Amino acid sequence: MTRILIALFALGLAGAASAQGRPQSPTLSCAANRQSVLANGAIVLGTGGFTYDRFVRDRSFCQFDETTFPAWVPARDTPQCFVGYRCKNVSPWDD
């Protein structure tokens, strides 16, 4: 009985997904924020408080009906840091 409980406990620990915190742009330097986007291609960055957005390296990380717009975030060393792009829908039907 004890072995069964230990096995179930171990499986429960292994299966539990721990939440990963997203990087917060105001706590990182501008270069570190930019490098995160370049290295990952697409990343969700916290931009302060409870706000966040998805930033991409280029259009290849967007949906087929989206295009890119330049994106700036607050960084530790500058209030406006160009980190890459945001994907935005350009469909005329969404206005």
Keywords:
95 residues; two-stranded antiparallel sheet; 2 helices
Task: Provide structural commentary.
- The chain has 95 residues and is α+β, with helices and mostly antiparallel strands.
- It has helices at residues 2-15, 30-40, and strands spanning 42-48, 51-56, 66-73, 81-89.
- A hairpin with a 7-residue loop joins strand 3 and strand 4 (81-89).
Set down the secondary structure blueprint.
Blueprint: H1 2-15, H2 30-40, E1 42-48, E2 51-56, E3 66-73, E4 81-89
Antiparallel strand pairs: 1-2, 3-4
Task: Assign a percent range to the helix content.
Answer: 25-40%
Low-confidence stretches: none
Structural class: alpha+beta
Q: Give the ordered list of helices and strands.
A: HHEEEE
What's a quick, concise take on this entry?
By secondary structure, this protein is α+β, with helices and mostly antiparallel strands. It is built from two helices and four strands; from the N terminus they run ααββββ. It is extended, with a radius of gyration of 19 Å.
